[in-house]
Structures are given as structure tokens and as C-alpha cells.
Amino acid sequence: MKIVIAGAGAMGSRFAIMLKRGGNDVTLIDGWPAHIEAIREHGLRANLNGEEIAVPFSIYSQNEIPTTVQADLILVFTKAMQLDQMMQTIKPMIGEQTKVLCLLNGIGHEDTIEKYVSTDKIFLGNTIWTADLIGPGNVRLFGDGSVELQNIEPGKEEDARQLAAVLADAGLNASYSENIRYSIYRKACVNGTLNGLCSILNVNIAQFGQTSTARAMVQTIVEEFAAVATHESVELDVSEVVHHIEETYDPEGIGMHYPSMYQDLINNHRKTEIDYINGAISRKGRKYQVPTPYCDFLTQMIHAKEDILAAE
Ligand code: NAD
Prior knowledge:
By secondary structure, this protein is an alpha/beta fold. Helices cover 44% and strands 17% of the residues. The protein has helices spanning 10-21, 33-42, 83-89, 109-113, 157-169, 180-201, 205-209, 214-230, 238-247, 260-267, 278-288, 293-308, and strands spanning 2-6, 25-29, 44-48, 51-55, 58-60, 73-76, 99-102, 122-127, 132-135, 138-141, 147-151, 174-176. Helix 11 packs across helix 12. Nicotinamide-adenine-dinucleotide binds at residues 7-12, 29-32, 62, 77-80, 82, 85-86, 89, 104-105, 127, 130-131, 133, 260, 273. One of its GO terms (molecular function) is 2-dehydropantoate 2-reductase activity.
């Protein structure tokens, strides 16, 4: 399959390497000049579960998008706030048959993608694979993961199953989901609590879990997500989701980790995806007339922190 990875950062690189090793024709699009240069010179280098590899790729910047390559599948892997610009950039690679798969964290990305591709070609998913970009053209890919995905338009189930099969054949442990919107909301609840709160409180997940107010804050935020989700026909099981979040506090599991937003914002002074997590709940809350004071406040606090740290 002819696959374009739109945003070849940490996650885009993981999927690119696995899909190419799985026999697909993979092209990369990215906007970081040093990254492009390194990949052109040495291939995309990766430490894949301890094995050092270098995989050659065709890679283009947004200023040199080829008009001759029309993708069967575009896999978008920018940060959420970069998605619109990326979709605009890759318009020449979108043909009649091109499908777009979005595995970004956060809520509501279909609204952005719909501006460029009809809904019968859009597929949404969730992934628990991880990846770290450690320098230009160089990624660290450890551990296992999975992907679940679904069509957003009824009647396109077979296309979604076929896409899942392409990813599964490449070792990405992908499956068709009967209710991807539930999974997306459930994962957004994890990000919508731990990401922002650990970043503001300057703690890892286990330390956050030990605070006397963790339960109350998590419960209230998940209730806000659930109240909004109901208006989109997603009925979150609040106590299950809270329990799922609390399971992450275990120091023997991922408790000692700092969430990705912490690493982006506090360590690297990068802007965050808050507007597509808690911020999305605030926007949808206004639309559905559901009060979301905790999500509103957390979004403002993270933006204030971005300002203080001059995040870019
Ligand atoms: P990243 O910042 O490493 O990669 C994004 C890439 O997109 C960068 O290389 C950037 O140069 C490129 N890019 C952005 N806008 C562009 C544009 N207009 N033109 C060209 N290139 C552009 O981000 P990531 O960590 O790979 O995360 C991608 C998404 O996956 C996010 O939604 C994140 O929350 C989600 N996610 C990440 C992980 C992880 O372990 N890193 C795990 C699960 C989900």
C-alpha cells in the first residue's frame, strides 16, 4: 500500500518503520529541516527494542510536496494543533481514493480533517504504542502497543477492517473497533487528568496519585468529560474510567513516569495539546450548555504555564 506519513516525528517514525518493514511503500512528510537532512543522509535511525537500525525513506518538507504521489493512505501524526496546517500542506497528495487515518491524542480531529477529505474516507483510532524522538533522524522505540480504529461514516466498516489488517500485518497489533469514540473519550480522560495536573503540580503520576485531592479532581474532570460525551451519544462509565486512571499510579507500572505533556512543556518548553483535550471539552461544553469549570481552569493554567515558559 502507498502510505504517506504526515508528521514524521516520534510516532510517525515508529509507524513509518513498522509499515515499511511490513512491505508497504512509505513516504514521509515533515517540517523539521535537520530531521529531513539526517534522514536523507543516514536513513531514519532507530533503536528498536535494543536493535540499532537505519531505514531509508523518501522524505519531503511542506515546501516540496510532490504532486505525483497520491496516497492510498495518509496517516497523520502531527501534534493536534498542527493538524490543520498539515492537512492544508498535503492536499496535492490527496486523490479520489485516498483514506486518512488519525491516531492523534485528543478529541474532535475529524472536524479538521473533514475540511479536506469526505467523511467516507476518514478513519479514527487510538494507539497505545509509544515513541521518543531523541534527535534529528533518530528515534527510540521500546515496548509493545496496539491500535484500534473505526470508520466514521456508516457503511465503511469493511474499509476500516482492511486498514486494520494492513497495520496488523506490519506488526502494529491493530484491530477494528465497534465504538472508537468511546475509546477516544476514555483515553482523553487519562490525558485530561494526568497530563495537565502533573504538569501544573510538577510531579510524576505516582506522586500525583498520593495527593489527598487526586481522587476528587480526577472524579470531577471525568464527570465533565462524561457530561459532554453524552451529547455525542457516548456514555462513559465514570467509575470505570476513574479506576482505570487510578491504576496508572502504581510505581511498579507507569507511576514513575512523567506524562508526555510534562515532558513537552516542562522539560522542552513546547506548546501542548491542551486545547484538544480539556480545551475541547470546554468548547463542546459551551456548545451543549454543559458547565465544565475544571476543564476551563486547567486549560487556562496550562496556557499560563506555556506563557511563563515561553513555550513554542
Ligand atoms: P512529534 O512532535 O514528535 O511529531 C510531530 C511531527 O510533525 C514533528 O516532527 C513536526 O516536525 C511535524 N510537523 C508538525 N506540523 C508540521 C507541518 N505543518 N508540516 C510538516 N511537518 C510538521 O509528536 P509525537 O510525539 O509523534 O505525537 C504525535 C501525536 O501522537 C500526538 O497527538 C500525541 O499526543 C500522540 N501520541 C504520542 C505518543 C508518543 O509516545 N510520542 C503516544 C501516543 C500518542
